[in-house]
Write a structure and sequence with these properties.
Shape: globular
Strand content: 35-45%
Number of domains: 1
Order of helices and strands: EHHHEEEHEHEE
Helix content: 25-40%
CATH architecture: 3-Layer(aba) Sandwich
Distance between the termini: 31 Å
Structural class: alpha+beta
CATH topology: Aminopeptidase
Largest sheet: 7 strands, mixed
């Protein structure tokens, strides 16, 4: 049926989350650098997501395909002079790459973010070499605003990032 939905993370998602994140290809373009990624790591993330849900900050959702968790999408509404902006981040299990699921999930989170009338702008920073993520963002209407040189440190490597944004 290929129905994509979003829901809050649950404690019983820890095994599938660990399976998804324990893949170097999935982690390649994430700031996350934990390999092996264990069930305990997944439980810690789910507890973090639950705290953020109740206290504010990053809002994290499981991406669900026909009842099965296949990835994650999150957003953070910025504060201060950037309070009209929200950042997004996402990843999906490798076996689900290239099937359009992430762009569908991202469109769901875009709708959720824009329910907040004070948000005018949604942005994402991606590694410049991450062409798949660029295509997801472009399918969802984001525009590349430029390159942030030497913007991200992952491990001991410094990377350029592209800044994409969608404006209401």
């Amino acid at each position: 049926m290929d129905e994509i939905s979003l829901r809050r993370w649950r404690r019983d998602d820890s095994n599938i989350l660990a399976e998804i994140c324990n893949d170097g290809d999935v982690q390649r373009y994430l700031l996350l650098s934990i390999l092996p990624y264990t069930v305990d790591d997944a439980c810690s993330f789910i507890e973090y997501a639950k705290r953020c849900e109740s206290e504010g900050g990053e809002q994290c959702f499981a991406v669900v395909l026909d009842g099965l968790v296949i990835g994650s999408v999150s957003y953070t509404i910025q504060t201060g002079c950037h309070s009209n902006s929200a950042s997004v981040g996402y990843y999906i299990g490798k076996r689900y790459w290239g099937k359009g699921y992430m762009s569908r999930a991202l469109n769901l989170i875009i709708d959720k973010i824009f329910e907040n009338p004070s948000v005018d702008r949604i942005y994402a920073e991606i590694f410049t070499e991450n062409g798949s993520s660029a295509r997801v963002l472009e399918k969802c209407g984001f525009v590349c605003e430029g390159t942030l040189r030497k913007a991200v440190v992952k491990g001991r490597e410094v990377h350029d990032a592209k800044l994409y944004a969608l404006v209401r």
